[in-house]
Amino acid sequence: MALDAIFRDQWGRVLATLVGILGDLELAEDAAAEAFAIAAERWARDGEPANPTGWLITTARNRAIDHLRRRRVLADKTKLLARDLETGPQPPEALMDDAATIPDERLELIFACCHPALALEAQVALTLRTLGGLSTDEIALAFLVPFETMSKRLTRAKHKIRDAGIPFAVPPDHQLPDRLAAVLSVVYLIFNHGWGGGRVDLAAQAIHLGRALADLMPDEPEVFALLALMLLHDARKAARLRDGQVVPLDDQDRALWDSRQIDEGRELLQRALVRGRTGPYLVQAAIADLHLHKPRDWQQIAALYETLARQTGSSIVEMNRAIAVAEIDGPEAGLAILDRLDLGHYRYFHSTRAELLRRAGRDKEAHNAYRRALDLAQTEPEQRYLANRLAETADS
Predict the structure, then answer these.
(1) Which end of the chain is less crowded, N or C, counting CB atoms within 10 A of the terminal residue's CB?
(2) Could you give the CA distance from residue 26 to residue 268 in angstroms, rounded to a whole number?
(3) Choice between 225 and 10, residue whose per-residue pLDDT is larger
(4) What is the pLDDT of residues 153-203, one digit of tens each?
(5) What pLDDT is recorded for position 102?
(6) Alpha carbons 58 and 101: distance in angstroms, whole number
């Protein structure tokens, strides 16, 4: 396997294991980065070892020992980590022959990164850095902030974990539901930022994190539901754009949809359903699945949005319910729901309202709503689509 593929697949596991050994996120991250750099040089010359992950963990651990010795601090940790050196150095393969001996502590790490003591922006950035393996440059680009700003944000977050003694541990049972909800929220936020912003790579990172969570928490239906939800949306990515414009779902070329990904999403949805607990991600995944059927069952979609609105109290959910209601009872019925919502800051609210106004024959109001949506649009494909809609209603 090429080193870049190993980095993509194993960075989170290597880093999480090192954090479990060292108890220091910054030291673990530096050591892991050094290990991958050493691997790039040595593997090109000597070939890939039999157990690449074990080699990387052992090499990184030894680099961490060297750092601790040179700094002459944390002597107690140095003694603990260097106990194997008493019998003389051994090659990494001898220490890590069996991949099963490597503890997988990614779950502990993601709960630390998504701890409520950290600001949400820090939770997202840390999760992408530690579990996703994205560089500071890549994270800064994804969130449209300067490199220096993101670097400081990550450093502050790591220091807060260290200084506040935030544990690298799975929360106790009585705290797990709330803490898991925060973790899932961060992963879905990453996905939506990639999906809505046209960042396919960022959406792929969120799916990668979702797969890791599903492996680590096989008894949590909401974990499977979130992964299903992301896969069902992502399966349409090849059909979302045409000639540089966003293509509405009904106009998409279904031949471009990824049928294998849809099948996997539906299988995961069924696995979540049989566990008998109906959380918000399960409801959203069920809605996403219904949207892929033709014709769509708008009655069922509206009913599920009503359930989701009760669960979340979200105005955005109500906005989506308005779309379904408009398909059942006409655009004025949908507009009656929209007019009760305080979503003036949300670009999709204005584009949704504009579509319903246009269908209701209220072209002048639709034109103004399209203009407001265009003012708030963040990506070029959205801007092109809305500019065309604006032009179509220009004479009203």
Answers:
(1) N
(2) 35
(3) 225
(4) 898 988 888 888 888 877 887 777 778 888 898 888 888 877 766 666 778
(5) 46
(6) 12
- Report pLDDT digits (tens) over 318-375: 999 999 999 999 999 999 999 999 999 888 999 999 999 999 999 999 999 999 999 9
pTM, full prediction? 0.75
pLDDT at 95: 43
In the numeric block, which tokens belong to residue 21? Answer: 């050994």
Q: How confident is the model at residue 252 (pLDDT cuts 50, 70, 90)?
A: very high
Token pair for 86: 């008493």
Structure token digits, residue 147: 């490199």
Distance CA 273, CA 267 (A): 10
Within 10 A of 394 (CB to CB), how many other CB atoms are there?
11
Contact between 134 and 128 under an 8 Å Cβ cutoff? The reply is yes
Cis peptide preceding 92, ω within 30 of 0? no
CA atoms of 385 and 232, how far apart (whole Å): 23
CB 373 within 8 A of CB 386: yes
Euclidean distance between the first and final Cα of the chain, in Å?
Answer: 60
One DSSP character per residue, 184-244 reads HHHHHHHHHHHHHTT-HHHHHHHHHHHHHHHHH-TT-HHHHHHHHHHHHHHTTGGGSEETT
Q: What is the largest CA-CA distance in the chain?
A: 85
Backbone angles phi, psi at 176, to 5 degrees: -60, -45
With contact defined as beta carbons under 8 Å apart, do 342 and 349 qualify? no
The mean predicted confidence, pLDDT, of the chain is: 84
Helix (H) or strand (E) holding 61: helix 52-71
**Which is more confident, 354 or 49?**
354
CA–CA gap between residue 64 and residue 59 (Å, rounded)? 9
**Amino acid at the residue 327:** E
Beta carbons of 126 and 144 less than 8 angstroms apart: no
Residue 248 exposed, middle or buried by CB count within 10 Å (0-12, 13-18, 19+) = exposed
